[in-house]
Amino acid sequence: MKTMPEKDPALLAAALIMLRDHGFAGLLAFVLSWLRIRFDAKETDPARQLIEASLGGVLAFVIGLACEKLGLSGGWSYVAAGFVGTMGVNQVRSLAGKWAQRKVDG
Hints:
Helix content: over 70%
Organism: Pseudomonas linyingensis
Strand content: under 5%
Structural class: mainly alpha
Number of strands: 0
Distance between the termini: 58 Å
Order of helices and strands: HHHH
Radius of gyration: 17 Å
Shape: globular
Protein name: Phage holin, lambda family
Pfam families: Phage_holin_3_1 (PF05106)
Keywords: Membrane, Transmembrane, Transmembrane helix
């Protein structure tokens, strides 16, 4: 087996640190999204339920990373997790679209 000395292990270390800092918020958003989907009973396909809940978890994870890069505390990732989990990915997408349109218009 060949080793890859040109590869930098710092990428894996950075990914693990991000997962440690914001992984629980992503998991929280996943669980909240999945429970909301099951409660609403609008989506019956388990694969689509899993995909939407996963998107909610990833979205909360990314929002938490963005808040951290903007200098906000890590607690904002939990706020994002609760918001995304209870509102849903489609609702968050429509709110973000409205916000972006307001910024473009003026």
